[in-house]
């Protein structure tokens, strides 16, 4: 009886690759994405400043212009480059999802907590001018 059980397990393990699903030729997605947990997100008058982990002890910042999130089509007539999705309370941590199409930046999604009292929301002090960081931004390159 033991030999039969061992034989069935070995046979199942060896035949598993035969039943694996494969993506049909020509049906691969041209998109790929990178999810990055957020440390802080700061709303600013011309966009969002997001901080994320660059390494074990370093933070990096990305500047996301507000025009990316305005639902209207961009200059070329395509969809908006950004979307803010509000998460309800729970165990999921806010994150940034950056989408690339054929290796080039396509769009970004911010998954943030609905409540601005969550620890990931921050404030930029009055009098701080970050306008130049949002000018002519048309790409998002994450640092790691």
Explain what the structure shows:
This protein is mainly beta. The protein has helices at 2-15, 131-134, and strands at 31-44, 47-53, 59-65, 82-87, 95-101, 104-113. It has a six-stranded mixed β-sheet, with no helix packed on it. Strand 2 and strand 3 (59-65) form a beta hairpin.
What percent strand?
Answer: 35-45%
**Number of separate helices:** 2
Sheet/helix structural class: mainly beta
How would the global form be characterised? Answer: globular
Order of helices and strands: HEEEEEEH
The radius of gyration computed from the alpha-carbon positions, rounded to a whole number of angstroms, is: 22 Å
Largest sheet, strands/sense/barrel = 6 strands, mixed
Low-confidence sequence ranges:
none
Mean pLDDT comes to 82
N-end to C-end Cα span? 54 Å
Can you list the strand order of the major beta sheet? 3-2-1-5-6-4
Question: What is the share of helical residues?
Answer: 10-25%
Number of strands: 6
Top keywords for this entry?
single chain; 144 residues; mainly beta; six-stranded mixed β-sheet; 6 strands; globular
Helix-strand layout with pairing:
Layout: H1 2-15, E1 31-44, E2 47-53, E3 59-65, E4 82-87, E5 95-101, E6 104-113, H2 131-134
Parallel strand pairs: 4-6
Antiparallel strand pairs: 1-2, 1-5, 2-3, 5-6
